[in-house]
Each structure stands twice: as C-alpha cells, then as structure tokens.
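Extended Data, panel c. Modelled sequence:
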Amino acid sequence: MGDILKPFIIGETAYNHEGDINYLLKMVDEIAEIKLNAVKFHLLLNPESYMQKKHPLIGETKKWIFDKKQWDDIIDYANEKELDVVALCDDVESIEYILKNGKNVNAIELHATGLDDYFLLDAVLGFNKQIILGIGGSTIDEIQYAVSFLKNKEENNILLMYGFQSYPTQYIDINLSKMLKIRDLFNLPVGYADHTAYNDPNNEIISVMAAMMGFNILEKHYTPDYGKERIDYHSAVGKEQMSKIKELMKLALTVYGDGGLAMSKAELEYGSVGPMKKAIVSKKFIKKGEKLSFDNLWFKRTEEESYIKQYQFLQLIGLEATQDIKEDEIVDFSKVKYEFKELDTKSFTNIDKDD
C-alpha cells in the first residue's frame, strides 16, 4: 500500500486586511491556530505598474498596500508561526523585492490576470522554489504559453491553481472534472482555489470535492470577521468553517486512498474463502477413489478458511479422492490425487525431439 495524500491548505488573506497591518497579523495568528499549511499574501508595491493611472480602483488600492519594511515584518511573522508563505505578486517590483531581499517565501504565485504577462514571467525566473500559476478563466493555449515559457528556461517546479473569484463563483462554473484533463495535459500538479459564497450551506462540502478526486491542495479565502462586508469577503470563511473544511478534506483524501491495486488487510480478511466467500465443499459423501464431479461438489460458506479459490473449481473436476470426504467438508488438493502431466514441447515449438 502506498501513502495516502495529505491535505495542503493555503489560507488566503487577499486584501481583506484593507491596509491594516495589525488586522493582517491577526489573520496570520488564526491561520496558524487552525494549523493550516500556508498563508497567502497579495503583494503589490507599485499600483501604477499594475493598473492604469486612471483606473477607478487605483486610489483605493493604494490604501490597501504595504511597503517593503512592512512586508519584512509580515513575512518574518508568518515564518515565526511556522507557516509556509505563498506570495501572489501583482507587479514585477514585488517579485524583485522577494528575490533581492532573500525573503523566506515558499512559493510565488502569478494571478490569472497576469498569467501570460511577459515581464512577470521573466521576473519570476530567478526564483528557485515553487511557481504557482493561477489558471482560472484561462484557455488551454494561454496556460500552455506560460508553462512553456517557464519550462524553456528550465523552471519545472510549477503548480497550476484552478479556480476563480466570481464574487462568488456559481456551482455551474466550477467544473471540477476539467482539473483532471488539465493535470493530464500538462503533467503538472493542480490545486483548487475555491470561491464558493461564504454563506452557502454547501460551502464546506464543495471546498473538499476536489480532494475527493485526488487533488490535495486547497486554497481558501480566510477572514477573522465572517460575513462582515470588507474587501474580498465574498468567499472568505471563518475559523469554525475552515477547521471543518480541514477535517473534511483529510477524510476525503483518506476515502480516496492511494490508488494501489494491492489489497488492504481488511480487504484480504473480507475476501477470505470460507468464512466470507463461499468455499468448495462436498455436496454428498465422497468415497476414497471416487472422482470429483459436478454432481458431488458445491459452494458454501464455511466456518473454517480454505486456501482453494473459487475459480479453481474446474481444476478439481475429474480428480480422484485419496480419502473419504464427508458431506459439507471443504475439498482441496490435499484430498485428491493430482498428477502433473509431462510437458508436450510440440505444442510450443516445431522442433522434433527426435531430430
């Protein structure tokens, strides 16, 4: 038996902090308390590198971002909490900051909105750890471009993050089965970023449905103030929900199993011939010297175990009993005369033994 996949859950903070560093640190605290595997931060150092100066959200965005010194403190704090750090970098400046300052970041993620941004892809080439590509709302050729760009530069530690935020995402648009095809097409690990509405009664079960298909990486928005209207609150769950999702995901992956064909101990016990599966027994009293036949053999469940498999029944037909066999007694090869026939080589070759 192989190893069962373990859940890897990333708690995404997004801009739910609204520029309040203490609020963000509180989010880190709670994500660590739940014992998630990683925390994800959105890094943006230069809004004008990310959006047009006339963009209607640029003014608000500037209120939500932190400077390099603040990010030093935030990332170091997450490291102290023993959380892996995923940095979603919205601008080249953020990637350069991580690389130049040698920050302890486990993965850099490129958002689906910049999947094929040449400058982001080029900047991330210097990162020697995992690169996550957000592929929500992306076509196969768009994904292919980004993957090929990185692989052509010998960057192979790539994870594809499936899922997108539609404030919130509707069931019909999730299409989890697409993940299987993407995994096969690109031969890369795929994670699931769930964006189901925070108050959807099916939120928890939908969050772990990809795990039921063997995908063990989940990205989920988190907030300390469940249901409160803040930035990126639409699909953000609280501590109680996230804890439940964690347990359900572990359960889902356990049930999914390791995919091995070897039988487990429980399966072997269930499949034992006799106590569970019917054994071959004598239908009536069989005298010593009598040949076994369809008339004197039967299948029944027995108290004791038999080493003869049901499919070996026909091998017994025509064999001579070497002892008296009582009615209902298990019949096996120890109670019959079994002669091995000499191999006729002419059946397998045109070479005559007399030649």
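The longest strand covers residues 8-14. This feature is highlighted in the accompanying rendering.
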